[in-house]
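URGENT: need a sanity check before tomorrow's submission.

F., can you look over the ATPase record below? I want to be sure the sequence and structure line up before it goes out.
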Amino acid sequence: MAWQSILDRFRPVGAPGPAGPAGVPSQDATGPAAELAAVFEALRPDVEQASRTVAEARVRAQRLVADARDGAAAELAAARSRAPAVREEARLAAEQQAASEAEALTARADAEVAVLAERGRARLPGMVDDVLSRLVEQP
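Structure tokens as predicted:
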């Protein structure tokens, strides 16, 4: 059996004893809306305060988002204005590092050349003697 209202559970009944008038009406003519009207009326100030709080929070959030956008735009503009100087610093640092590496490579090559030249000078007298002895031996 489907209930039309919570009050349907109160069936019209008579008092114990001989027949008499019904105890509770089976249908509430005013309905649950009238029963809850006092509750909703009591809650109205809280609902209105909550609505005001939400509206204030939305305004504050919009202000915060606008401030954040402005701050981000200012930070981006500052970064863009610093970018050429930072690029130049990076270029100079890269050039300095490349020059330092080239200088180290050149020094290492010069050392290897010096070692090879010393070896050549050390072998030269023996090679000259060898070449001369071959020339003399030829008929």
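My own read: The mean pLDDT is 84. Residues 31-110 form one domain. If you see anything odd, call me.
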